[in-house]
Amino acid sequence: MSDLDKAIAQLRSCRPIPEDQVRELCHRARELLIEEGNVVTVTAPVTICGDIHGQFHDLMELFRVGGDVPDTNYLFMGDFVDRGFYSLESFLLLLCLKVRYPDRMTLIRGNHESRQITTVYGFYDECLRKYGSANVWRYCCDVFDYLALGAIVLGASSTLSPGSPEDDDTEIEVCDQAGSIISRFPRQSANQPSQEKLDSSSKNTVDKTGPPGTGASGSSSGSVGNPTGAILCVHGGLSPLVDTVDKIRLIDRKQEVPHEGAMCDLLWSDPDEIDGWGLSPRGAGFLFGADIVKVFNHRNDLSLIARAHQLVMEGFKEMFDASIVTVWSAPNYCYRCGNVAAVLELTEDESGTGIFQRTNGDVGRSSGGIVEPRGGPKNGPARRYRVFQAAPQDSRGMPAKKPVADYFL
Ligand SMILES: [Mn+2]
C-alpha cells in the first residue's frame, strides 16, 4: 500500500494525517494543479457536486450515494472548507483523491478557498486546534491559489439510458439516496407549442415533484442556449467582465481571491429574478438575471451552467428555463438548516452519432454536423439528481452532542 493510499484510508476514517504528510500532499497537488488551465475540460460521465463545507460524514454519505472514487468521476465546485467541524479531513481527503486519481477528480475553487474567508469562518481555527500551529492552514491556502476557476463538461448524453437512447425520453430524473426514482420528467419535443408543453408536463409531473419547491418542476421545457452545447461549471456564477469562456482562460488565477474583478465574480455571484446585472447583498460579486445567462450560453455554445454557492432546501434548483442549475451538497447545512443535498449525474453520450455534439465552449464550434434524432432535436443534457440526507448520527463517531455555546469560546 502506497503512502498515498494509507493517507486516504486514514482520512476516510476521519483522522487527520501528520503535518509533514500534509506538506508533501499539498506540494504534489500544487504541481498537478499548476498544469491545469483556469477552465478544466472534463468528459462525461461525471457527477457534479456543490458545497461541502467541512461536513465530512455527509461527504462520506455523498460517496455512498454517488459511488466511490475511482468508480465514479467527480467534479466538486468548491467550498470544501469552513462552517462544518471537519474542513481539514474533508479537504485533505478530496486532495488525496485528486493526486491519486487526477483524471477522475476535478476540484474547482469556491469563495471559501481563501485566506481571508477561512480566517473568519472556521478552517483556520480548526487547523490551529488540530495541529497547534497554522502551518497546515498555510499549506492548504497555497493549494487554494492553484485551483481551477471553472470546468467545461463535454460529451454529456441527452439520454439517461445509454443502452437504449431511442426509448428513453427522460430529461430529468430525481432519485433518493437508496436509488429509487422520486420523480421523472420526460423531455418535451422541441416542436410542441409551449402552452401544450406546460399543460402536459404539469399534468404528468407536478404531483410527483418529490421535495416541494424542487426546481425540476413540470415547467422545464429543455435548455436555452445551444441545446447540444457543453456545460460550464463554476462556483458562483457570471461576471459583467466575462462574456466568453475564453476570457476566463485569460485570468491570472494563481493568487488570493481578489475583492473585485472577474475572478471574484465567478466565485461570488448569484443568479436572481432580475433583468441584467444587480448589486449582490453579499458585498462581492453580482446578481445576474435570466437574460444574462441565456445570452452567455448562446454565445458560448453552452446548454447549461452548473453552479453551487447557495443553499437550496431541495438540494438542487434549476432556473431560467433550465439554463442554470444550483447544486448544493451539504445536507442539514451547519447541522441545523434541515435541507437535503444533491449531486448531478451526467451520463456519457455513447451513441457516437453526434446527436450530442461535443464542443469546447467556444463560439461556433458546434455549428456543423448535428444529426437530429427522430422527433426533433433533444435539448440539453439529461440530468439525474441524486438527493440525499445527512449521515445518520451514529455514523459520526464522536462529537457534537452539545456544541459549546459561542460565549464560552
Ligand atoms: Mn460559496
UniProtKB/TrEMBL annotation:
Database matches in PROSITE patterns: SER_THR_PHOSPHATASE
GO biological process, one term: double-strand break repair via homologous recombination
Ranges of biased composition (kind: Polar residues): 186-195
Domain of life: Eukaryota
Gene Ontology cellular component list: nuclear periphery; protein phosphatase 4 complex
Known EC number: 3.1.3.16
Positions of region (Disordered): 186-223
Molecular-function GO term, any one: protein serine/threonine phosphatase activity
Domain Serine/threonine specific protein phosphatases stretches: 108-113
Pfam families reported in the protein's UniProt record: Metallophos
Keyword Methyltransferase attached: no
Catalysed reactions, semicolon-separated: O-phospho-L-threonyl-[protein] + H2O = L-threonyl-[protein] + phosphate
Keywords: Hydrolase, Manganese, Metal-binding
CDD domains xref list: MPP_PP2A_PP4_PP6
Active-site feature positions: H112 (proton donor/acceptor)
Family: Belongs to the PPP phosphatase family.
Identification of the protein by name: Serine/threonine-protein phosphatase
Organism from which the protein derives: Hypocrea virens (strain Gv29-8 / FGSC 10586)
